[in-house]
Here is the input.
Amino acid sequence: MAAEPWEDELTRALAQQFDNRIERFATYVGQNFLAADCAAVYDIVEALRDKWQFDYLVDLTAVDFPNRPKRFEVVYILYSYARNERIRLKCAVAEGERPRSVVALHATADWLEREVYDMFGIEFARHPDLRRLLLPEDWQGFPLRRDTNILAMDNQWVRENLGIESGQ
Amino acid sequence: MSQTFLDSNELVLNMGPQHPSTHGVLRVILKLDGERVNGTECVIGYLHRGVEKIAENRTYQMFAPYVDRMDYVAAVSNGLGYVLAVERLISVEATPRAQAVRVILTELNRIASHLLWLGTHALDIGAITPLFYTLREREEVLKIFENYCGARLTTHAFRIGGLQYELYDGFEREVNAFCDWFIPKVDEYEELLTNNRIWRERLTGVGILNAADCKRYGVTGPVLRAAGVAWDLRKAQPYCGYQNYEFDIPTGSNADTFDRYVVRMEEMRQSVRIIRQAVGAIPAGPIMAKVSKVLKPPVGEAYVSIEAPKGELGYYIVSDGTLNPYRVRVRPPSLINLQALDQMVRGALVADVVAIIGTLDIVLGEIDR
Here is the structure.
């Protein structure tokens, strides 16, 4: 079972507006998604919100694929109350690349982008307050990267702040 | 920093992480001008256990009990969302019998979750009595869970493809008896609170979050419905056979703490309505669909979400075709609803902050994961 092409009124309009900056439209297990150039994501999210009523940013997260040339995939899940439709927008992000924050479009993105930064080390440009969300601010390392072992942790931080050798 | 502490009238007050009304280890930094709140900052993560990382190191079946430990007062809902997401990846649908039982247990859990919310919310406001009543009723729900699967809180009631256990003798009778007994209890709570003058004055007009702001912040669940948006995933995108049951979506109009109270009270009654329909018509048949013991979903990803008691609970699972999920992302309703706290408390009094945290109905286990 593989992803199939997704085509309807929305994809045609988006393909026309964003031309070659959207790489593919596909559907898998009944869920539609599109993959786009990282630099175009902000504009696409804005167009989806203003023209197509995708006014609810359900979730924003990332997946790490260390073997790909651009190792991270940032995923935006959008929902439209008016259309009762949910879509996913994905973009590949290389290490050190800074996708533009969508906080200005969706206030939800504030903590969600902070969490992605916290867990993967992806920095979002123009984020109003990019700090770690769940881990301590002076923690070293990004736990949800695939090359971080589950037992690996910031032992120095644990020693200094908790007064024990290891949290394991 | 040209302004020193002495120049400013602003007082910074730490509320939590050990404060009974933050419902767990939440730290809220309040910036105060007298009794008025000028702004807040939430510090979270005290309960972070790396659940999403653990998922990458467990098989699909092994990870299922972990999800119960996120929103531990609504463990059944957590489990339902997870098994539905995995079932979507392997294109399996639970059997009709399993679906009916899932609906019954999930709705019972919604009642239990709302009861705990009501008791603690009232306690925060200063009314001690409702907590004893709500815990008494919640106990009956937990007994049904215990009789069914042996656990009361972190139930792990469902399996990928259906259910682990067949129903015990007398399940239908017990559930029906609970429904008959419970409805008058809701009226009793309402008698205690709804027209209570102190209750009304503490809640009415407090913590307003209108529909536009709810959408901007991605706030879902009873908070959104109290703002007048009749949106419930059980109706909007039915799963698990919810389209077969008749129920209403209660909504409010003032988007304040009182309306959120009214909405949740009505939701408990609607849950009973759903349970009665489901328990009266549990189909016969197997409780498990055919699912391979060695579970390797094909390469791909899916996002599946359900209407948990607190709002939209979603699971985004990426499979690379191996035994372990490549990535599991949980979209917790509490985390995203909490983000709206700052907007809701601006201009309010310190005492209102307690009411507003209570009305958001957050569980820190789910926020920190």
Notes: Residues 4-133 of chain A form a domain with the Beta Polymerase; domain 2 fold (CATH 3.30.460.80).
